[in-house]
Amino acid sequence: MTDVQQRTEAEIRQDRPGTASSRRVVLMGAGAIGATAALAACGTDAANTNPNGTDFAAEPAPAGSDGPAGGGSTGGGGTVLVAAADVEVGGGVILDELVVTQPAEGSFKAFSNVCTHQGCKVSEIKNGSIICKCHNSLFSIQDGAPTSGPAKAPLAVTAIDVDGDNIVTA
Fold first, then answer.
1. At CA 107, angle to CA 118 and CA 109, rounded to 5?
2. Which member of 3, 108, 137, 149 lies 3.0 to 4.6 Å from 132 by CB, making a disulfide possible if both were Cys?
3. Is the Cα dihedral 102, 112, 67, 53 positive or negative?
């Protein structure tokens, strides 16, 4: 008698060139899909966002240059930003694109609300300072100059006017 070895169908298929077990094909396909998803997640986004999720530009456009920041147009040609009565003396108001302050009675100033340190938006006005809480930079409500923290450059100044009871873009 001769010894005859019996082989299973799977063993026969595995020996054929150009074929692979169905389990191996499925696992390789799943791995390829996972790798593609991981690479897509590592890609860059066209929008500039900083770590705290706010949008910023490396060199922001002057406030009010791309349309109304917080109001409509006036008869004088400027865009209404805020009612003068809403800006307290020694404080200010943070709007979508800028900060309007009143360092002294009847004297209004406007600055970009984008911190010059790393592009976070400023978040508070307190004790005569515009505060960026991302890295604790403080800016003067008088001229936007940095007074404390890592920021070295002042906030960008925006020209404004008083039109009746409103603060408007110049």
1. 20
2. 137
3. negative
* H helical segments located in 18-124: 22-41
Ordered by start, the domain boundaries in the chain are 9-41, 80-169
Q: How far apart are CA 137 and CA 149, in angstroms?
A: 4
Residue 77: both structure tokens together: 């040609």
- Quote the longest CA-to-CA distance of the chain: 115
CB 129 within 8 A of CB 141: yes
Q: What is the pLDDT of residue 44?
A: 46
Contact by Cβ (8 Å): 50, 133: no
| pTM of the complete model | 0.57
pLDDT band at 65 (very low <50, low <70, confident <90, very high): very low
For range 95-101, the mean pLDDT: 96
- Radius of gyration, CA atoms only, the chain: 31
Dihedral angle sign, alpha carbons of residues 10, 14, 20, 26: positive
Residues 119-128: tens digit of each pLDDT: 999 999 999 9
**Do 58 and 117 contact (CB within 8 A), yes or no?**
no
Q: What is the CATH number assigned to the segment(s) 80-169? A: 2.102.10.10
pLDDT the model gives residue 166: 96
Supply the DSSP symbol for 156: P
